Amino acid sequence: MIIVKSKRDLKSLIGSWKAKGEEHGVVMTMGALHEGHLALVDAANKDNDRVIATIFINPRQFDNKADLETYPIDTNEDLRKLKASGVDAVYLPQVGEIYPVGYSTTVSVADMQDCLCGATRPGHMDGVTTVVSKLLIQTNPDRAYYGQKDFQQFLLIQRVARDLDLMVDVIGVPTIREEDNLALSSRNRRLNTEQRKIAPTLFKVESAIADLLIQGEAVDHVLEWGRNYILEAGFEKVDYLELRSEENLTLITDSSSKEERLSSRVFVAAWMGNIRLIDNLPISR
Length: 285
Fold this sequence. Notes:
The protein is 42% helix and 19% strand. The chain is of the alpha/beta class. It has 2 domains: 2-173, HUPs (Rossmann fold, 3-Layer(aba) Sandwich), CATH 3.40.50.620; 186-282, 2-Layer Sandwich (Pantoate--beta-alanine Ligase, Chain: A,domain 2), CATH 3.30.1300. The protein has a 6-stranded parallel sheet with strand order 1-4-3-2-5-6, with helices on both faces. It has a 3-stranded antiparallel sheet with strand order 7-8-9. Helix 2 (35-47) links the parallel strand 2 and strand 3 (50-55). Helix 7 crosses helix 8 (151-163) and helix 10 packs antiparallel against helix 11 (219-233). The chain is globular, with a radius of gyration of 19 Å.
């Protein structure tokens, strides 16, 4: 496994692959790797001749400075996992390689950004779409893989690639979960024992909401029930619990058609202490 830290070396490596007619996929990470990240690598290995992973903790997507300061870092362990999973190369740039002195450009998507995490974390999505755009340009992949736990992010990256004519297939990989259905996240390791017991409540509520909607219950009613259940279970704050279109994140309400309801997802973000967990689940599973 090759480790590259500069754009120049990255360009040379990828050029050598393309010269041999080899297709490559990219998996972008901020480190603190878990089985969810490795599932992206597995998907990329199946589709491509070569796979490159990136590790870059992007300061521009943290709206909370404390969250950035407490983000878990173990680069040696991350590299070990990537090598074992069959990654061909890792791009490990410093901040200056991504945001050189005088950098002043932001990539922003007008649609689908004023809701969910875009509404509750000011500047976060602009930070995501900006760094992903740069990494897609630098790694120049045939395919790029993103987890559907961050479904809003996945849709925004698809839109960026389409709108900017980036010649890459943006592929979503289903959420990987623990045995108790907690969605895998780097933040899970910050949960204490009691919080970890409470955390699977999010999936439990999502699943119940999906079942109730399929049975014909009113959207507003089940969402109100779900919010109360999450808070009573031990979460301290719910940023959002909403039903939105899988295609463009349009809000689904009681006035929406049955077809729209059944082709939507339930999205949730909630806090325990200073830890924010997110999840989503399609209604028709």
